[in-house]
TrEMBL record:
Record-annotated membrane-spanning stretches: 6-26, 38-60, 89-114, 307-329
Organism annotation: Pseudarthrobacter enclensis
Biological process, per Gene Ontology: proteolysis
Record InterPro entries: Beta-lactam_resp_regulator, Peptidase_M48
Name this protein carries in UniProt: Zn-dependent protease with chaperone function
Length: 330
């Protein structure tokens, strides 16, 4: 138990600082965004588990040689007024910190979900008043907006893709199809769930700089994933032109009559590069996507992708093993 707590603490520090920074700076995620997305999720989950686990295992160390025994002894102290003399000040402090951090993370996750749902509900009410059916697809709405705007609003069976008439006038039919395929990819691949999780992580730990890097990286990766889906049926030139047209209309967007949601977790936007738009790509992200399409790099070899995914699994397994079988480490 003693050594397990220190190993978990070291792992938490590594996953909180150097590993996310190295991944954020790496170039290979653009070559395999799906693999990189799995790794980001493993880093976040393993980091949180290690952070909480380090404090929990250290706090339980005097009253059990493994996690189950320690939790049983702690339950006896809390529920049945068993003696607590075995626990020192720092052990009680560590247990309290673990409980508070766990409660904070869960509460922030639920609060973020509530806020997102509330904002989406309000946005749907605005769309019901100001948007009209596209005439092509029941799940596509059109708003009156001169600037090119495209985003999807998740909501299960009520999910919709929103386009501006300015966008529809600026794009050729093939380019418009690329936009719709891109936005539908966000919905079908449930990208809003990833945005919710990483937004909550950043809200819960704003003092940790890597939560911002993780959220930015995830936002970029989901756009690459949606681009790849659009490329299955539309040409690369068509998609590049669509991104460029939308980016060219980004300046000056966001007037008082703009009904677009202000948060990327409320709505997902794949081809809207307007700064401050709903789930919009930043100009830098839009430029990196165009650069990725103009100068494509070969996908990571299958062996490398397999190794990264296996590493992600091991990353999750390591803190889990340290928590479940700490008695093996003495």
């Amino acid at each position: 138990m003693f050594w397990a707590s220190y190993l978990l603490a070291v792992l938490a520090i590594i996953l909180a600082w150097p590993v996310p920074i190295l991944l954020w700076r790496a170039q290979w995620p653009a070559r395999s965004p799906f693999t990189a997305m799995l790794l980001w999720q493993a880093i976040a989950l393993a980091g949180g588990l290690s952070m909480i686990g380090a404090m929990l295992v250290y706090g339980l160390e005097p009253i059990g040689d493994n996690l189950i025994a320690g939790l049983r002894a702690l339950a006896g102290m809390v529920l049945f007024n068993a003696p607590t003399t075995a626990l020192g000040f720092w052990h009680i402090f560590a247990l309290s910190a673990a409980a508070l951090l766990t409660a904070h993370l869960v509460f922030t996750l639920l609060l973020t979900y509530y806020k997102i749902q509330r904002q989406r509900r309000r946005h749907r009410e605005l769309l019901a008043l100001l948007a009209s059916p596209s005439g092509q697809d029941a799940g596509t709405l059109v708003i009156s907006h001169d600037s090119p705007v495209a985003y999807c609003l998740p909501g299960g069976a009520r999910s919709v893709t929103v386009l501006s008439d300015g966008l529809m006038a600026a794009l050729e039919p093939a380019e418009l199809r690329a936009v719709l395929i891109h936005e539908n990819a966000h919905l079908s691949q449930r990208h809003h769930l990833l945005l919710w999780a990483f937004a909550a992580w950043r809200q819960a730990l704003p003092w940790l700089p890597t939560t911002r890097l993780a959220q930015e990286s995830v936002n970029s990766l989901i756009e690459m994933l949606a681009d790849d889906v659009a490329l299955r049926t539309e040409s690369k030139a068509t998609l590049i032109k669509a991104i460029a047209i939308v980016a060219s209309g980004s300046a000056g967007n966001g007037g008082t009559g703009d009904i677009r949601p202000a948060s990327p977790t409320v709505a997902l936007s794949g081809l809207e590069a307007a700064s401050g738009g709903p789930g919009s790509d930043s100009v830098r992200t839009a430029a990196s996507r165009v650069s990725r399409l103009l100068t494509p790099q070969p996908q990571l070899p299958a062996a490398v992708r397999t190794a990264v995914m296996a590493g992600s699994v091991l990353l999750l397994a390591l803190p889990t093993a340290l928590l479940v079988v700490p008695g093996l480490l003495g």
